[in-house]
Structure of Permease IIC component:
Amino acid sequence: MENSGSNSAFSKFVNDKIMPPVMKFVNTKAVKAMQDGMIYSLPFIIIGSIFLILSNIPIPAVAAAVQSSGWAAFFSQAYNASFGLLSIWAVVGIAYVYVRNEGYEALPAGLTALSSFFLIQLMQIDNPVKTAMVNGTTGATAKAVAASVNHLPAAVKTLVTSPVNGVFNLTWLGGQGMIAALIVGLLVGWSYSAMIRKGWKITLPEQVPASVAKQFTAMIPAGVILFVSMFIYAGFKIFMNTDFLQWVYELLELPMQGLSDSLLGAVVIGFAVSFFWFFGVHGGLIVGTIAGVFLMPNTAANAALSHAGRLTLANGAHIVTNEFYNNFINLTGSGITIGLVLFTLFFAKSKQFKTLGKIELVPAIFNINEPFLFGLPLVMNPFLAIPFFLTPVVVAISTYTVIATGIVPPLNGVAAPWTTPAIISGFFIGGWKMALWQACTLAISTAIYFPFAKKYDAMLYKQEEAKLAAEAAAGNAEAEKI
């Protein structure tokens, strides 16, 4: 198969002009630290998702039984201590990986980042009485609490409605603190490495045990970082009456979440994965790293709403989350190639298609399609480029639409592992309606790929028949000579 001149020119332009800066960005120290550092949160996200399911089983009768037994509270505690600490895992992991990649002892940097992350936030929560007045479980509850408080003497009223100090606010330890955690992790990793590189460390005699000496090595960088963090905290507290996390959330995270959680955001993400893969670059890795920064807080926010029994768009649930990306845009692999698999198994005539279809079937069930990407191939294949680009975009648009219109509920924040088979993952992340919709996306993939695969298969079959005819003719000619 030969590419046309225009296709070669286009691919040359992309490879020469577009991919170098993109790859340079992807391979920067900061992006590598985010990509590898956030991986450390994955076990807690998946395990926490299990506890989230158990505390909110999508079967009303079972959920009621779990609630009445008291076990829902235990599952909630486990969820809060795993998935609910998403920002903690991120800030430690990012600083750790950054310093590790620089070749230095990394754990002290991760712990320094954690201490700094705690230091720059107000250690307080709203008083439960005030919360009940504003967000009572029912209107009657809120009115009753407010009426009781209003009859108290002014001094007592102020006391019972004042913030509770000296406690961590779990809100900022979860998804809402994610962008701030990324910033802190990167800044601590960079500054810690720079100070070690410049020799800002205490060096003890060789007789001192290495485990002790390493901690003294970390003392000066950690001390400088924590002093700076303290002044940052003081500045925000004195001059803005807020903290760094709240400021970052309002200035950066809310707008970024809004941009990613849009139809345009879904389309761009769906297109970008296939675009990079088409030119042989790991689109899932690149897009997942960049988009995940914004999509993971969306997932955490939905998980919190689901945990509270308030998962609706009206209550602020997000449509485009990390599970939207993993379990729809990348369903059965980048490009959503299950339709191509089904064609090769049941309708293909060419030996190449049939053979690769048998190889790809099992990996496709677990959302892996490298045998197709490089074996068929889909990479740099103009004959299958249109369905490869189009399918994820169509699925992104249609999935966004069915959630936005209420046909299917928002994703519940459960993080099904990306290798979870289609339909099963749909049930975990959104119940039976989401599982049914995943089945519909498989049908969409089949419908889009079928006509293009049929033409490509016919071309391959014709080439194989011509090759067999040529080999047969050559064999006959050789026999005649004998």
Q: What stands out?
A: The two ends are 35 Å apart (CA to CA). The chain has 22 helices and two strands. The longest helix spans residues 424-481. Residues 416 and 425 are 6 Å apart (CA to CA).
